[in-house]
User: Fold this.
Amino acid sequence: MDDVALQLKALLFPAIADIAVRSVDVDVENVRLDAQCTTAGAACPGCGVCSTRVHSSYLRFLADARSAGRSVVLQLRVRRFRCGNTKCPRRTFVERVSGLTRRHRRHTERLRSILTTVGLALAGRAGGRLAAVLGMSVSRSTMSTAHVRAASTT
Ligand SMILES: [Zn+2]
Assistant:
């Protein structure tokens, strides 16, 4: 990995291990980050056995916190692995990047944290308005959901 890629990773995802930023595209309104995991394999969530047998890969598009007035989208390539354990009920599984996002989410954990904070402070319509001012367009129900989720975990 070259120095620029290492610096980008350290700048953009300092707390995330095993991820590499492959490219950054910037235009007037948007920043697109292309990234992927750097590990050779992943542990099956069903049995815990590590696999390096890649079945396929696909792109996830995750909204991230804005930067310098631009919206940021993380284009993350994730791999699907074959589980090599014949006793495991899972035949394939998708790698997970701890601290970056969660299953079925469209936001990074960084953006989710910001939305949760806004939701806790304002909730509902007021939270949605503040998020819009900050350039994070989310629905009122998303803001209310973030508020309820955060309140239930504290
Ligand atoms: Zn397994």
Observations:
- Residues 44, 46-47, 49, 83, 85, 88, 90 surround zinc ion (CB under 6 Å).
- The radius of gyration is 18 Å.
- The chain has four helices and seven strands.
- The beta strands are 19-26, 30-37, 42-43, 50-51, 54-67, 70-82, 92-94.
